[in-house]
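**Folding the chain**
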Amino acid sequence: MTATDLRDQKAPDPDPAEAGQPSTSQADRDRRRRARRRARVVAFVFVLPALLLLGALVVYPVLFSVGRSFFDASGDRFVGGDNYTEMFHDPATIKAVRNTAIWVVIAPTLLTGLGLVLAVLVEKVRWATAFKLLLFMPMAVSFLAAGIIFRLAYDEDPDKGVLNAAVVSVHDVFKGESSYPTARARDGQGLTKDVDGSYGTSAGVSPGDTVGLGLVGVRAEDLPADARPAYPAAARKAPADELRGVVYLDFTRGGGGKQGEVDRAESGLPGMAVEAVRDGKTVGSATTAADGSFRFESLEPGSYTVRLPGSNFAPPYEGISWLGPALVTPAIIGAYLWIWTGFAMVLIGAGLAALPRDALEAARMDGANEWQIFRRITVPLLAPVLTVVFVTLVINVMKVFDLVYIIAPGPVQEDATVLATQMWLVSFGGGNNQGLGSALGVLLLLLVIPAMVFNVRRFRGSQR
């Protein structure tokens, strides 16, 4: 081979790796690595304000509360776990834990059940959108405003509280109300009061007598519209086989008249129950007419007592003490249900809309009724959604504060207290023991964390 051939033969290119230069694939990897590093830096710069805000508003208060829970009320002396020990020996805190447990068990269960039932029923309503809007509207009301609304609704005075106004109205329809709750007899005027609130004649009366039963304590303007003067009835003599009498208002406007006697200007008391009693047994009953008169016919000869039963003087029915110690917690839970039912219904309704309709139609074609479809198909398919709604509500009720603090009156505040309100009361509401309050806050955090972790895992599982 000549020298010219050797020159013409091209030498092979050197290997980039042997020449100390990176390969194309290595350069691409380095370029991507640098791009990812820049993206992380940019992302961190954008996330940094949120992280600072989260740290200032969440992380720092949590860490500070944990540390503060190991110090005394003044914050100067380290007491270790004494606050946690005291927390479980304090009757108010134990009651708060018990009430919180009641909230956690009852409120989410009722809300999830109501939301499920309403979501299923709304599908069959013509104006479904308007119905959903109506139920969801309380979510736009703040807890403060809702607490004020229900504090008024639960007022024990029927003239103020709408619930007691309705209860009293229904009660009066079926049982009626007492005729003259403020009426009473004058002392020494022939009537004696028994322990059951009734009045009876001091002396025995017999058929053929006419008795006058004078009462006071009734304002003239409170008399029934059909009340008439009692004098004509009192002036009539009774037949030998009848016992007659008149119940009247022993008071004359402007003064005058004589106590214990029926004057011409004095009014009868209509609608009052009267009984004839002999040997402790009621042998006759009557109701006074417009002029206050009554009579008992066909009585056997002998001595009788004329009695005005205590029902005539019973105080008016005032309704139910919604905010009393026994009912205050259920009453507040009722207000909570009013606010959150729409939330549960909308979430469950969204899950219901995503159900495969072919499964429901196939069940109907196989002869299943609506209850069987609901129980065996709808509820099992909605189980993931129902679980998320339930756990979310559990987290929410553990933190409830506004409704309890606003609705419960001061005297029953301790009967309605939950962990959140107890934490505030101990720390700032008069207890001034922020060490114990911080321990309560840590306890509340520990109770909420498992539910939060469960919910996060459910969300991640659904995304997969």
